[in-house]
Write a structure and sequence with these properties.
Blueprint: H1 15-35, H2 40-53, E1 55-56, H3 58-64, H4 69-72, E2 78-79, H5 82-90, H6 95-106, H7 113-119, H8 122-130, H9 134-141, H10 146-152, H11 158-170, H12 176-189, H13 202-212, H14 215-228, H15 230-239, H16 251-260, H17 265-271, H18 275-283, H19 287-298, H20 305-324
Antiparallel strand pairs: 1-2
Length: about 350
């Protein structure tokens, strides 16, 4: 007896569920051939849908396959199950990969190892990292989200943090076998939070991490890195764009940046800004908008420093996003040689 309720409402089906119905209708051989053309993320989503959907009524199949109505109506009802998913996957994946994918699904994994690690509580993540060799930790920090890396790095101690950054700077492309070994080890450590994701460029990742670090933490870390890897660290600092750099923007692009954030982010960010930077922001606004912003700042009362930092990060990220889209041009921090 099937343990799932029959699937009856085609209007509520997700994309992966509709795709799962298609693959079940195609059968193992043809479905397996088609699935080979998909990436791993798409395979996981469809496999999860097949494993969970249970019985699908014929009228639902016909609705999903309406453009193939005559061909699909001959199939009648179909049934999705773990075994059905296993049969499709075995057509083009090794047995161990099939077992791994289905094991993750049955165990509740999201299929995104680095995303799952990034979502861990920072103290829990720090405990996981403390058990690992520094080179392994450097690999992990280069692949998890920058905000997660910025939270956990100070918890590992200033001396170890400096060593980790030094290793990240010197890191070369990791062989696939070594990366798979790290991933497998982490899957056992955080079972149910496993998967795979492409790594970010190390320098870009470090710049994002530095931008999100608390100012005092970054100052202490900077002192250590300036001793250990002065040239590479200066190069990294030149690539950074921080909240204070917004003072270099002209009124028009700065106004665009301000329009990118919503709610209390702008007044919150300016509450923690120094006087010159705050005045630069206000001077970039029309008189009416400036007065409203000043009133909002005065009415906020005491604010937490971490809320101010987060609001300032939102503005920096908005500026970087606009620059990436070609909407504004950011000031260059590179020191250019002057020619007489």
């Amino acid at each position: 007896m099937n343990q799932f309720s029959p699937l009856r409402k085609p209007s509520r089906l997700s994309g992966p569920e509709k795709s799962a119905i298609l693959f079940l209708c195609l059968g193992e051989e043809r479905g397996g051939q088609l699935m080979q053309r998909l990436d791993v993320g798409e395979i996981r989503k469809i496999t999860r849908a097949i494993s969970a959907m249970g019985e699908v009524q014929a009228e639902v199949v016909e609705e999903v396959m309406r453009e193939f109505g005559e061909k699909m109506s001959s199939y009648g009802g179909i049934t999705g199950s773990v075994e059905a998913a296993r049969g499709l996957l075995k057509g083009f994946l090794p047995e161990e990969r099939v077992a791994e994918i289905l094991g993750e699904i049955e165990g509740g994994s999201s299929g995104d190892l680095w995303g799952d690690l990034s979502d861990l509580d920072d103290k829990v993540l720090a405990e996981v990292l403390r058990k690992e060799h520094n080179q392994t930790v450097a690999v992990i920090l280069s692949r998890i989200r920058a905000d997660a890396a910025a939270k956990v790095l100070p918890l590992l101690g200033q001396e170890r943090a400096a060593d980790l950054v030094e290793r990240m700077v010197a890191m070369e492309e990791l062989p696939d076998a070594a990366l798979r070994s790290i991933e497998e080890s982490l899957r056992h450590e955080v079972r149910g939070k496993a998967g795979r994701n492409a790594g970010a460029d190390t320098e870009k990742q470090l710049v994002k991490v530095f931008n999100k670090l608390d100012a005092k933490v970054f100052e202490g870390l900077s002192r250590e890195l300036e001793k250990k890897i002065p040239e590479r660290f200066r190069s990294l600092k030149q690539k950074m764009f921080v909240f204070g750099d917004l003072i270099e923007l002209k009124p028009a692009p700065l106004a665009k940046v301000m329009r990118e954030v919503t709610g209390k982010s702008l007044p919150m960010a300016l509450r923690g800004a120094d006087k010159d930077l705050r005045e630069h922001f206000l001077a970039s606004l029309p008189a009416r908008s400036r007065d409203m912003l000043e009133d909002e700042m005065r009415g906020m009362g005491p604010v937490r420093s971490r809320d101010v930092k987060q609001a300032q990060v939102e503005l920096v990220e908005a500026a970087l996003r606009l620059a990436s889209d070609g909407e504004i041009e950011l000031p260059s921090s590179d020191e250019e040689e002057m020619i007489d």
